[in-house]
């Protein structure tokens, strides 16, 4: 039903997952919403590209969700997307091309973790017991540690095999930051919520459909149905206080404003209004992600998602057999380089060629795979470093920020974006 006329007039600047979550919650509360986005389509850094010559839509990067993303899943369901149909749910499994890694059985979180670790015959008994001892210590300390610790420092007592085959892959997947530079306190929060917060929390949820169909496109339909006005392809240039309170966005009066745009855009718009907040946002550093899409000649893989051993000539840490997720994508795969700054410097052509060789070598293909496309999101996530002070959501009276970079429990994830959007909307 359309928004009620007595609600506040709210501007949401930015149409990524944070902005969409904020817009939906604001409409739901009876406010009148106008959403601006500088792109011609919604979704931000989690969207699909236009169809290719074969009619298939690649995503602007391979994304996954986990069972602990409860707000994201609830929002999808509200928008008419059935998560059980749109996502392939698998128990956490770090399957490497040539061997099995950690694999968690179903069941209550803590017993499942213990059983999974003890059953991992790839690791020595010393390594398995060392991991369980460390995890017990983290649990007894409430999954908290000194804010200045890095993940590498937190885990320095663990056997090298555990660090190579579990800690490093999980760290770069969750924080998009190498363990030596990643915040241990944020990593522990992610481990707590993913591995120890309830049955199914650690499950991997792999998209069966183009990413835009999971949230952006259903949200666009929902918002329009509920009376929101969408202005796509419009970069907001003017944000100033109103003469009688509220805010003027592009000269139009609003009672409240939610900045759900990128951190760089939020810093630009707030520089004359809240210079301290703007400077804190502008100081954030970023980590890129490269996704290499290949057409591969081999048969189906042992698992839809493979973990990979990173090395000087092996840049990808994870690979996805897209044909196991969607029949129309048979033979296609996505290879992900997280924390990809060194490979961005070397160039996308060099990164793609290194991944092609890595893929052929890892999966023992007789012929090299064909490169379909290589994509780089140079500001994919903020660098989640130890002691990082992230900016607060509140900027000024009636002006809020919503994005995965604002202060919160998670690193730059889809769930972090949704939580930030809902938090800003709840404070209108």
Please provide a written account of the structure.
The chain has helices at residues 17-28, 70-78, 83-86, 109-119, 125-140, 151-154, 160-175, 184-195, 216-225, 263-270, 275-282, 341-346, 348-363, 414-426; strands spanning 9-13, 32-37, 65-66, 87-90, 93-95, 100-103, 204-207, 229-232, 239-241, 247-249, 252-254, 256-259, 286-295, 305-307, 318-321, 332-338, 370-382, 394-396, 399-401. It has 428 residues and is of the alpha+beta class. The chain has three domains: 9-81 and 209-284 and 389-426, FAD/NAD(P)-binding domain (3-Layer(bba) Sandwich), CATH 3.50.50.60; 92-202, no CATH class; 286-382, Polyamine Oxidase, Chain A, domain 2, CATH 3.90.660.10. The strands form five sheets. A six-stranded mixed sheet has the order 8-2-1-12-19-18, with helices on one face. The longest helix is centred in the N-terminal third of the chain and has 16 residues, at 125-140. The two termini are 20 Å apart. The model has no long low-confidence stretch (mean pLDDT 94).
């Amino acid at each position: 039903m359309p928004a009620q006329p007595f609600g506040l007039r709210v501007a949401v600047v930015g149409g990524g997952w944070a902005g969409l979550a904020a817009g939906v919650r604001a409409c739901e509360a009876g406010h009148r919403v106008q959403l601006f986005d500088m792109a011609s389509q919604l979704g931000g850094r989690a969207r699909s590209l236009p169809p290719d010559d074969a009619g298939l839509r690649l995503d602007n990067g391979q994304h996954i969700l986990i069972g602990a993303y409860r707000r994201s899943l609830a929002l999808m369901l509200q928008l008419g997307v059935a998560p059980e149909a749109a996502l392939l749910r698998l128990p956490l499994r770090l399957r490497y091309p040539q061997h099995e890694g950690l694999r968690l059985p179903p069941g209550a979180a803590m017993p499942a973790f213990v059983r999974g670790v003890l059953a991992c015959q790839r690791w020595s008994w010393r390594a398995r017991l060392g991991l369980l001892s460390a995890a017990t210590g983290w649990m007894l300390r409430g999954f908290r540690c000194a804010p200045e610790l890095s993940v590498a420092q937190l885990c320095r007592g663990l056997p090298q095999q555990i660090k190579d085959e579990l800690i490093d892959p999980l760290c770069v997947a969750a924080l998009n930051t190498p363990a030596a530079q990643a915040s241990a306190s944020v990593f522990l929060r992610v481990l707590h919520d993913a591995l120890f917060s309830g049955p199914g929390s650690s499950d991997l949820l792999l998209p069966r459909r183009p990413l835009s169909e999971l949230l952006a496109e259903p949200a666009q339909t929902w918002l329009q149905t509920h009376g929101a006005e969408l202005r796509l392809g419009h970069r907001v240039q003017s944000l100033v206080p109103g003469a009688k309170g509220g805010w003027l966005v592009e000269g139009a009066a609003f009672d409240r404003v939610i900045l759900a745009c990128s951190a760089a855009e939020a810093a630009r718009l707030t520089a004359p209004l809240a210079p301290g907040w703007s400077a804190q946002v502008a100081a954030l550093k970023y980590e890129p992600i490269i996704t290499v899409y290949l057409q591969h000649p081999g048969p189906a893989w042992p698992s839809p998602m493979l973990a990979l051993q990173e090395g000087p000539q092996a840049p990808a840490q994870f690979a996805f057999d897209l044909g196991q997720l969607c029949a129309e994508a048979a033979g296609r795969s996505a290879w992900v380089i997280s924390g990809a700054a060194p490979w961005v410097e070397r160039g996308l052509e060099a990164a793609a060629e290194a991944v092609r060789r890595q893929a052929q070598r890892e999966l023992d293909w007789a012929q090299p795979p064909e490169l379909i496309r290589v994509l780089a999101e140079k500001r994919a996530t903020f660098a989640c470093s130890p002691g990082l002070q992230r900016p607060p959501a509140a900027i000024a009276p009636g002006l809020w920020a919503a994005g995965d970079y604002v202060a919160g429990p998670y690193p730059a994830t889809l769930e972090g974006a949704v939580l930030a959007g809902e938090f800003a909307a709840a404070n209108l």
